[in-house]
Design a protein that fits this description.
Blueprint: H1 5-20, E1 24-26, E2 36-45, H2 47-51, E3 64-73, H3 79-92, E4 96-98, E5 101-104, H4 111-121, E6 129-136
Parallel strand pairs: 1-2
Antiparallel strand pairs: 2-3, 3-6, 4-5, 5-6
């Protein structure tokens, strides 16, 4: 089964919601300022896979993707929900969300890049959790 980007996001959102016990919204926080938000900000080809084609076998598909995301609290001061989100990501870190999706929690993003992401989205900078999803199609 080939998973689309929307499938990957929905499966991820559902898994985090079930572990967290609170609703997760796709996108950046709006003026309501409540809850937890899953914000995808970059989609890439997996460079390891692209550069190491000799490691392919008949079970490996033709493309692998990396989706970089942020977990962002609705309110810049809502550290409790961010702490719970961190715990939920750690509990499902490197687990299979579906047969083809692997959650690679806690990726590195520079402060400069985070500032650009928040500024571009029109949201005030706040503490967030960067992580990556990897899947094949």
């Amino acid at each position: 089964m080939n998973l689309s980007l929307s499938d990957v996001l929905e499966l991820t959102k559902t898994e985090i919601t079930s572990v967290l016990g609170e609703e997760v919204t796709l996108g950046m926080p709006d003026s309501s300022g409540s809850g937890l938000f899953l914000f995808p900000y970059q989609l890439l080809f997996d460079p390891v896979f692209v550069n190491d084609r000799h490691k392919m076998d008949e079970n490996v598909t033709s493309q692998r993707y990396i989706l970089k995301c942020l977990m962002v609290p609705g309110s810049s001061q809502n550290y409790e929900i961010l702490s719970k989100a961190f715990d939920s990501l750690v509990s499902i870190q490197s687990s299979k969300l579906a047969e083809q999706i692997t959650l690679m929690a806690l990726s590195n993003v520079t402060t400069e890049d985070l500032c650009r992401i928040f500024s571009s989205a029109g949201v005030s900078f706040r503490l967030s959790i960067p992580f990556e999803l990897r899947w094949a199609v």
